[in-house]
Amino acid sequence: MRAGQVVYFGMVVALGTNVFAAHQIAGNIEVFSYMLGFGFATAVTILVGRKIGAGEYTEAKIYAKLGLFLAVGVMTVFGSILFFFGEWAGSLFTNDQTVIDNIGTALKVSGVFQPFLAVVIVLTGAYQGANNTKFPMYLTGVGMWAVRTLFVYILGTQLGWGLLGVWIAIGLDIGFRAIVLAVQFSRDKWAVEQKEKPEEDPESECHPQTTKGDLPTCVNSY
User: Where are the beta strands (DSSP E) in 30-125?
Assistant: First the structure.
């Protein structure tokens, strides 16, 4: 993921200083939505992990859905704030009107994709709580390289859409990952099956554990 960011950040830098400045400022403003999402994701990871560990799969999925619905609701509201007040927020960082306009454009796109971002963050937490850490990791790599970096190049550079193309590419990556995670979740393929431990005799510690072959020759030592 970080390697992909280095590549597409380089493409953004190539679009110009003002564009890169707007991209960075928009990202700093958007980070508040990530904090909201990670709050719900942390709660979901803990609750799902406890329920999965207790063998209560149905309850684990209920907690995951509840956290998901709450996060989508809260982040959708925050997305509307980004959409309508993005330029005003950008004006707190710079007086350059071109940069402010670019910030507003980026945050409008970000605002539209906030519900999908909530799905990605919270369901990733649910997968991790269910002991499935590999699938979200692989999906992040695929999304970063096959969707985000590719479309930043196509939309932002080749088609000349500038920062609008960059943030649409970011949104496409988020949307792609959200759909895949949600489909796997709805198909009940999100939790790694726990290996059942054989039932132990509660009095097993009271039984002799020595076999006949292990018995010492001196009876007094046993």
Answer: none
Q: Is residue 205 part of a domain?
A: no
- If phi > 0 it is left, if psi is from -120 to 50 it is alpha, else beta; for residue 92 that is alpha
**Each residue's pLDDT expressed in tens, for the chain with a length of 222 residues:** 889 889 999 999 999 999 999 999 999 999 999 999 999 999 999 999 999 999 999 999 999 999 999 999 999 999 999 999 999 999 999 999 999 999 999 999 999 999 999 999 999 999 999 999 999 999 999 999 999 999 999 999 999 999 999 999 999 999 999 999 999 999 999 988 655 554 555 555 555 555 555 544 544 433
| Domain total in the chain | 1
Q: Is residue 125 part of a domain?
A: yes
Asked if residue 18 belongs to a domain, the reply is yes
Distance CA(207)–CA(2), nearest Å, equals: 56
The tally of CA atoms less than 13 A away on the side-chain side of residue 55 is 3
Sequence-ordered list of residues with C-beta below 8 angstroms from that of 209, at least 6 positions apart, any chain: none
Give me 221's structure tokens: 């030592």
Tell me the chain's radius of gyration from C-alpha atoms. 25
Q: Give 94's DSSP letter.
A: -
Assess contact for 26 and 106: CB atoms under 8 A: yes
CA dist., res. 31 & res. 34, Å (int): 5
d(CA 98, CA 21): 10
Q: Is residue 203 part of a domain?
A: no
